[in-house]
Structure formats: C-alpha cells, structure tokens
Amino acid sequence: MSRRLHIEVFRYNPLDPNSEPHMQSFYVNEYDSMTLFIALNIIRDEQDPTLQFDFCCRAGICGSCGMVINGRPGLACHTQTRDLPDHIVLHPLPVFKLIGDLSVDTGTWFRDAGARIEAWVHNDHEQFDPKAEEVRMENDLANEIFELDRCIECGCCVSACGTARMREDFLGATSIARVARFYLDPRDERNEENYYQVIGNDQGVFGCMGLLGCEDVCPKHIPLQDQLGIMRRMLAIHSVKGILPKRVLEKLQHKGCCHESH
Amino acid sequence: MDASTLTLHVRKNGAGVGRLDVMQMLSGVLLIVFLWAHLMLVSSVLISPKLMNAIAWFFETTYMAQVGGPLIGLLIFAHFLLAARKMPWRAQETNAFVKHSVMMHHKDTWLWLAQVGTALLILVMAATHMWVVLTDLPITAAKSAARIQSGTWLPFYLILLPLAEIHVGIGFYRIGVKYGYITKANRKWYQRLENYMMGGFITIGLLTLIRFLFLTV
Predict the structure, then answer these.
(1) What class of enzyme is it (chain A) (predicted)?
(2) What is the pLDDT of residues A142-152, one digit of tens each?
(3) Are B149 and B213 in contact (CB under 8 A)?
(4) What SS3 state is found at A243?
(5) Mind listing the domains of chain A with CATH numbers?
(6) Where are the domains of chain B?
(7) SS3 (DSSP) at A238
(8) Which of A89, A187, A259, B100 is the most buried (most CB within 10 A)?
(9) What is the share, in percent, of chain B residues with pLDDT greater than 90?
(10) Which of A206, A231, A235 should be substituted to probe chain B, the one whose Cβ sees the most B Cβ atoms within 10 Å?
C-alpha cells in the first residue's frame, strides 16, 4: 500500500515585499523508487507552478538540488522518499543567499571561496605549452586526487557546519578539501608556507571545531573531516617548526592517516 | 610587530593562529591527563584512607601541591582563554548555533554546545574547589570527608564531577577528530571508548564521594 506523503515546504520570495516566510503543506501519493526530486516536480507540475527549487542532472552530479530535508542538508535527487517518514519538511540550505523557496545561490559563495583559497595550480613556469604531452603521474596518486575532485559543490557540508552558520567568513570543509587536492597534486608547486597563508587561520583549518556535520551529510561520501584533520595537523606542525624538536614533529606528522606532499 | 604593520593594512605572514591552536590543544591534553590522574589519586581512598593520606603527604612534602596547584589553575584559565576564541559570545552567534543544532539533530553538533556550557561552569566551580583545598593544606582523607559531609559541598561535587568528566571526555574525542587521528574508519570505536571512559571515571568519582560521605571523621 503506497503512502500519502505530507510534504511541508518553506515558502518565501525575498524579492517580493508582500511575501511572508511560511511553511506550506502539499500531499503527494508515493510510488516505488520515488525520489524527493520527483515528488517536488509532481507538486510543481500539478499543484503549484510557483514553487522554486533547483535541479539539473537528477543523478547527484550537478549539485543543484541541495536542500534541508527533515533537518539534514542533502540532495533531493539522491534521496528516496521510502527512506523518509510520511511527513517531510523541506527548507532551503542555510548560509547561502536565498533566491526563493528552496532555491539558493551557491555559485557566488563557491566563487568567492575558490578565489580566497586560490583554487588553481600554482607554479613558476614561464609559459604553458598546450602541445606538450601531459605530465604523467602514478595511478594511485591520480585516484587519490580524483577522490577529492568528486566534490560537486552542492553546499550541503557548508550548511551542515555549525561554524559556517555562526561565522560567515569560514571557508568550510569543501574549500579545505579543495586545498588538500592541490596539496596532493605534484603540478601545484606551493609549499607548506604558501598553503598556510591561505588556510592557516580561523577562517580556514583552525576555525574548524570538529563537529563532523560536513562528513555526515556529504552526499558523495567524501571523507571531509579526515581531510580537515590532515591539513590542520600539517599546518599546525608547520606553525611550531623550530620550537618543538624535529623528531617529535615528524612522528606526529606521520601517525595515522596522512597525505605526503609530492 | 613593526611600524609598517601597525595599521593592519598589510598582512604580515606569521604562525600566530596555528600556534594558538597548538597551545589550545596542548593545554587541553595536559588538563585531560591531570584530571584523570587526579581522580585516580583521590580514589585511592577507596582502598584505604591511609593510602590517600600518604599520597597527599608525598605531593605536599615535594611542594608539588603548593606549586602545581596554582599552576593547574593558571593552565585552566589559559585553556579557557584559548578555547573561548571559538565560543559564541555574540547573541547572533548563539542564536545561529542553537537553531543549527535543533535543525540538524546531530550528536556531534550538540556535544560542542555541551562543551561550551560545561566549560563556563567548570571555570567557576574548579576555581572554588581549588581555593577551598589549597587554602586548607595539608590534604587528608578526614578533612575531605568532613567537607563532603558538611554544608552544600556534596551537591557541589555531584555537579562538578560529571561536568568535568563530560568536558574532558568530549575534549579528548574532539582533539582526535580535529587533528586527524580519529578518522571515518575508526570514529565509531573511539566514540565507544569515549563513552566507556566517561562512564568509568564518573563511576569511580561517585564511589569516592560515597566513601567520603560514610567515612568516620
């Protein structure tokens, strides 16, 4: 027997001075393998064409349909309604600018974060030769980099972060994992001091309070907290170089999981 | 600092924040070790009040109590100052964090609020505890028992004990998480360890308090 889902959606249009933030209830008949994304489309097609929410790929790749589902940030297209109770409450992702209803602008935030962490390969090469053969790297290393490159910038980890919600300038797990990706990449020639300058502060690794929200909601299951830990340890050790004995620091650096700088 | 950086218009590269973070972590680790050792030493009264007296005598004749006690007080204060950099002092921050915790119903997020709350209470209560003990040296089992049996000291310690153990237990776990020693792979195991350790230390502390309560003065 299929369920009748009660979907409660946050409604507000910040551009309309007459719009009042409120919750609106919709009812949808559930069917097998229904995702939240499908349910929202049914609502928009059949009940209220003014409902705003973002989607693009339907397959957890574009990162557009991030929203707060019963309190937890997640992707609508990745969420099967059978995994949820009859009553589903939907809010827009916090932290990001609200466009309307469930739609937020993650692009501006990520653009700013990318610029702040300088998310591009840095080197001192005089010029780039587009005809030259690509530099080879070990398969294991390529896989390690790819593991972090799987981030789809949906913003769920940022919305699930207590620090990011308290402090607007916090870079969030996604940005730190992005820096970790460049730290792994041999084509990026930045040294520890260079990385320290971009994330060695309270807006970066040292602002993280280890709340683990990022890792627990990431729809791509990227080990975000592990990356934060690795980068924080690397930069904390960098900050006390010359104070603590080298041998102790080396031992701390290599205990447990770690990236080696290539 | 020099004259050219006084304006803060030009950022000077420095290791500052990283060092503050390391100091916060190190002071936390020292206090965790201290608190566990402290509890084990006091709980020696469970074996025999004479043993506890002997341990107290050792720490006083070597001046470790007289010098170490105030130093621990300073360490607690320094740790508070370092960790308080992250506390939600502005009403707007508290509001955002509480709403976030309610929204997420996520244990690790709530644990941080527990850590903030316990920190503020411990700061006051630990100071009171240290003042009472260190201004009335030497420490003996009989004097400790007399204190527990008089006035409002029993409820005071019944509150301070779990507060301190919870704060230290969460702190131990969170340091591991923040520095990448507790990872996705072993997190569940460490969570269980943290719970057992907190439960174990609170039990030992409660037994010690009960022993003091029934010790003939």
Answers:
(1) oxidoreductase
(2) 998 998 899 99
(3) yes
(4) coil
(5) 4-104 (3.10.20.30), 117-254 (1.10.1060.10)
(6) 22-214
(7) helix
(8) B100
(9) 57
(10) A206
Residue B177, CA distances (Å) to A109, B28, B215 in order: 26, 14, 42
- Residues in chain B closer than 8 A to A196 (CB atoms): 13, 15, 18
Alpha helix (H) residue ranges in A78-191: 106-116, 139-149, 156-159, 162-166, 172-184
pLDDT at A255: 63
CB distance A11 to A22 below 8 Å: yes
Residue B1 neighbours by CB under 8 Å, 6+ apart? none
Inform me whether the C-beta atom of residue B9 falls under 8 Å from chain A C-beta atoms: no
Using a CB-CB distance cutoff of 8 angstroms, which residues of chain B are in contact with residue A193? 13
Task: Encode chain A (262 residues) as per-residue pLDDT tens digits.
Answer: 589 999 999 999 999 999 999 999 999 999 989 999 999 999 999 999 999 999 999 899 999 999 999 999 999 999 999 999 999 999 999 999 999 999 999 999 999 999 999 999 888 888 888 898 888 889 999 998 998 899 999 999 999 999 999 999 999 999 999 999 999 898 888 888 888 889 988 899 999 999 999 999 999 999 899 889 989 998 888 888 877 777 777 777 666 555 654 4
The Cα–Cα gap between A79 and A60 comes to: 10
Structure confidence by residue, pLDDT tens digits, B67-124? 888 999 999 999 999 999 999 999 999 999 999 999 999 999 999 999 999 999 999 9
ipTM: 0.86
Residue B129 marked as a ligand binder: yes
From B17, B88, B109, residue closest to A206, measured CB to CB = B17
Contacts of B87 in chain A (CB under 8 A): none
Query: How would you class B35 by CB atoms within 10 Å of its CB: exposed for 0-12, middle for 13-18, buried for 19 or more?
Result: buried
Say which CATH topology domain B22-214 has: 3 helical TM bundles of succinate and fumarate reductases (1.20.1300)
CA distance B201 to chain A (A): 24
If you ran DSSP here, which 8-state letter would residue A33 be given?
Answer: T
Strand A66-69, strand A72-75: pairing: antiparallel
The answer to whether B21 contacts A232, with C-beta atoms less than 8 Å apart, is yes
Question: Are residues B112 and A209, on separate chains, in Cβ contact within 8 Å?
Answer: yes
First to last CA, chain B: 59
Across the range B25-34, mean pLDDT stands at: 94
CB atoms within 10 A of CB B4: 9
The overall longest dimension of chain A from CA atoms, in Å, is 68
